[in-house]
Amino acid sequence: MAQSSRPMESRTGRNKQRYGSQGERLVAGVVPLSFDRTKVLVIQSTRKNGWVLPKGGWETDENTAQEAACREAWEEAGVICRIQRDLGSIYEAVTPEQIPTQASKNLYQFFEVSVDTEEAQWPEMYKRARQWMTYAEAAQVLAGRPELYEALNRSSIIR
Q: Three-state SS string across 102-140, please?
C-alpha cells in the first residue's frame, strides 16, 4: 500500500477494543528487524521515559492480530512491514496492585516483521522518536518491560 493511502492520524480511544474471554485487553505488537536481522527498531514510550516495541490494541474492525500489528507499526514507528512469523502470546507481567481500578491485564500477540519501508513522515512522528538498536542495546532498554523483553528474545535477531 502506498504511503499516500495510509492514514496520517493514529487511532485513539478504546471504543473498538477487543477483549479476551477472561476480560484481558488484546494487544498486537511487532518486533521489527533489519533485513540482516542484526538490529531491532524501537520507539520512545509516550507514557514513560524509555523505549518500547510498537504495539497497541487490536480493534474490532480488524480481522486479524497481524493486521492490527502492522497498523501499529505504521502509526507508532512509521514503517511498512511484512509479517515473518508469529512470536506467540505473552501476558503482561504486572501484579494486580499495579493495574489501575477498572483496568484489565493485557495479552500481547507479537509478530516478527521485516521492515520494507521506513517513511520520513508518520502519524506519531511528533510524539515518538525511533531508533535501530542491536540486541544488547534493545535488551538493556526493554529489561524493565518483561513482556517486551520476552518478545525480543523470541525473535530471530542475531545476538
A: CCCCEEEEEEEEEEEEECCCCCCCCCCCEEEECHHHHHH
Distance CA 158, CA 135 (A): 7
- Helices 146-154 and 135-142 meet at what angle, rounded to 10? 160
Q: What is the mean pLDDT of residues 74-82?
A: 97
Element containing residue 153 per DSSP (H, E)? helix 146-154
Element (H, E) at 80: strand 79-91
C-alpha cell, 25: 485487553
Give the mean pLDDT of 40-60. 93
99 vs 156: CA distance, rounded Å: 31
Q: Is the pLDDT of residue 1 over 50?
A: no
Q: Are 20 and 26 in contact (CB under 8 A)?
A: yes
1: number of Cβ within 10 Å? 8
Confidence of residue 4 (pLDDT cuts 50, 70, 90): very low
For CA atoms 59, 61, 63, 68, the dihedral sign is: negative
